[in-house]
Amino acid sequence: MTFEDQLAEGEAVPVEGWDFSWFEGRATEERPPWGYSRLLGERMAAAAAGLDLQTGGGEVLAGIPKPPQVLAATEGWPPNVEVARKTLAPLGGQVVEAEYDAPLPFPDESFDLVSSRHPIANPWREIARVLRPGGTFLSQQIGAGTVRELKEFFLGPQDYGDWTPDVLRVEAEAVGLRVERLEPAKLRMEFFDLAAVVHFLRKVIWIVPGFEVRKYRDELAELHRMIETDGKFVAHSRRVLVEAVKPGHTFG
């Protein structure tokens, strides 16, 4: 495919939802060692009431084998809300439109489990408020500097500050949660064509904020030449698994 063909294809793929199956054969990402989907399924099966924050299109939550009696999710982007409602309907999941930094529309101590995969931010006080005593917050977080190789190709060197996974521990403990597991991972990513890069940057909008093909056409042309020469563009994602418990009696 020509440079122009790849730009057109990357721009044409819909970005709604959080399904990455389109990338099969065009990009790869090493999976974290802890198996988040498996952990989520186990925790949800053991819970009486579960809440998934910033659920995207609900694709990850929909993979749980056994939903709790009460299952809810929040999402802030309207197109994803409708996708999530359709995706989670077979599980009896209720999807509520709520911004990531807004108060959660649920009463105190409503859930045994609160989960979130790749949240934009963590509403720690709200998480602690809606958890029942003994309840758990389970999350796979995006680490600072994730996909920095791609980000810096377009934006130049970046300052990622002094963020470390321990910041999550401090934030969780500040609202009374007890962190029981905190595990970072650095994972290899490979992009095999330019269309995959374009679609990725349109879908994961925080990597290159304000990304548009016309704005970065020169950089994309150079990246296309690099991929054709090397066969791939290599980057690394950074992930952190967090499990934190609200002190008190366990549910059940």
UniProtKB/TrEMBL annotation:
GO molecular function, one term: S-adenosylmethionine-dependent methyltransferase activity
Domain Methyltransferase type: 51-138
Cross-referenced SUPFAM superfamilies: S-adenosyl-L-methionine-dependent methyltransferases (SSF53335)
Pfam families, sorted: Methyltransf_11
Gene3D superfamilies attached to this UniProt entry: Vaccinia Virus protein VP39
Name of this chain's protein: Methyltransferase type 11 domain-containing protein
Native source organism of the sequence: Amycolatopsis japonica
